What we know:
This protein is of the alpha/beta class. The protein has one domain (2-27, 57-111, 134-324): Ribokinase (UDP-N-acetylmuramoyl-L-alanine:D-glutamate ligase). The protein has helices at 2-10, 59-68, 83-94, 141-154, 173-179, 206-213, 220-234, 274-287, 292-306, 317-324, and strands at residues 18-23, 25-38, 45-58, 72-76, 78-80, 103-105, 112-119, 126-133, 160-165, 185-189, 201-202, 238-242, 248-252, 257-260. The radius of gyration is 20 Å and the shape is globular. The two termini are 15 Å apart.
Amino acid sequence: MQARLAEIIQRFGQETARVLVVGDLTLDEFLTGAVERISREAPVVILRHEQTCQIPGGAANALANLASLGVQTVALGVLGADLQGQQLRQLLEDRGILTTHLVTDDTRPTVTKTRIAAHARQSVTQQVVRVDRKSDLPLALSVEAELVAQIRHWVPQVELVICSDYSEGVLTPAVIAACLAHPQVIVDSHQDLSRFHGAQLFTPNVPEAELAIGFAIQDAQSLEQAGAALLTQTGAEQILITRGEAGMSLFLKTGAHFVVPAFNRTQVFDVTGAGDTVVAGLVAARLSGARPEEAMVLGNLAASIVVRTFGTCTTNPKELLHYLEQVTWTPDWTN
Length: 335
């Protein structure tokens, strides 16, 4: 298995096929400071600012992860006509992501999530509060129409489409319908999976899967039932349920079921954006000739790397090869 996976990773970046990512683009800000004292104005701590960094978040994190793994990507979403939108566009362009078809809406802000993190002497850094800037209003019909037109333009030109849904309003019924015109659509959505009925692959985590099927996943039997129910409910060919420290389970329409354990249970520092990394890893693997179960393993491996770092981050083929050498698991698949 190791030799086969290493061969797949070594092919990352050699494919010329493009991937279209449609979804809720977010600018993630991380403001870090040291606790200095308690304010005399109110019972709150005062932080001495140390650094602020900005990185792609939401669907933009999926784009960044794909680009880091060598996949040629096209970004499609909505940015505000603001400084945050300019910054996010530049962050994507710096990673070689095509941004020329992004839609700008001057009536809504670029979705921005500012995480303020603090530490004291001899302590780890942790989040204190998050400040979100966004609009809860529906997309204007003109903006939606432009998105649909751009999707229809790109669908014939890309190998597959990823719908990255963070519930910020970009994936409207019309936008989803335009995406589903492509035969290979991967859905990473936080809610209401049935909206994407007919997509090829869904990647819910356990809470998202339980919300969709209406019962708890508590043991092997209920997990099997959940996989079967989701395949029926979504009309998908594949359902990948990510299960945190329990690993991942892949259910195929053919009846096959594959399970992979978590490769990293002890060095989990921050799970922010790990789902995007899973999708990026399995897409890069698919484009490099991996079978569904092999793509799941590499998505799992990629996620096990990024959770070791605070904040939204990416991995690359070199890191994947390095950590693959440390994996001692041998699959016990009879399918």
